[in-house]
Amino acid sequence: MSGAAGGSGDNPWQDNRGNKDRSITKSSVAGGEGMAQAVIGGGAAAGGPRLEGDAFLTGDQMTGGYGAADILHACTIEAHAGEIAVIVGPNGAGKSTAMKAIFGMLKLRGGGVRIGGEEITHLSPQARVAKGMAFVPQTNNVFPSMTVEENLEMGAFLRQDDISGTMAQVYELFPILKEKRRQAAGELSGGQRQQVAVGRALMTQPKVLMLDEPTAGVSPIVMDELFDRIVEVARTGITILMVEQNARQALEIADRGYVLVQGRNAYTGTGAELLGNPEVRRTFLGG
Ligand SMILES: Nc1ncnc2c1ncn2[C@@H]1O[C@H](COP(=O)(O)OP(=O)(O)OP(=O)(O)O)[C@@H](O)[C@H]1O
Ligand SMILES: [Mg+2]
Question: How much is the pTM?
Fold first, then answer.
């Protein structure tokens, strides 16, 4: 195919527009002066933390579950445009459930979901994709018998336009996938399969990319690399909402972090604030 790919200088994933480095290393959040500090440790008491009002993606006071018993209890998750927001918490805390609720795979009994200020609480997952959401679930996130390239094509099935440029961008972000594009995704290593899953989500040209444990089961080196790629994606202006079990490393790249416990907001702050909070460290980060 002719190259929308271009040289690495054209790589949109490496576009540093918006100078995102600042927000990744500094703990201040634009417009949120003093807010995160107030929320730290106080989130559990009165339902979800106070909203800043200008989030790009909001799961607001979400309450609901799979049957009679609620799993989420007034759980609030926000991600601002171009930010990396990270959800951490113990097994069974409801992290995946919160992601499913935001993506529309779970009917809420209370609360709502908004994207770009628009109420989408009652939209189907497919309609949310059309609004700019992409979701990489925790499990079964690739088609193992399809090739890498077919997986990427599947990601774009809702698109009517030419997808070759986006595919070239995905291959620039994850060069190994280009090398293995004719191989069945099921034959790839765990880390490479996660790249396929992320790549497939990017094929929809999302505004917000939701990742449920993208580094599950991969080595520390592969984890670091995946996180680097995720930061690159965020620098292009795509908002990231990610659940991570590698809490410390994920909070290091997070502009905003949420600790969920039993379906409730337990702690909310910038990544740096959560990493610096003694209680969070002791209880959730192993000291
Ligand atoms: N499909 C389902 N039907 C019924 N209950 C479910 C379903 N999926 C999850 N649960 C329950 O909801 C609760 C929260 O599960 P969830 O998967 O959201 O937790 P999690 O924080 O993502 O955990 P993990 O870290 O293990 O991925 C758990 O008690 C779990 O047993
Ligand atoms: Mg989970």
Answer: 0.84
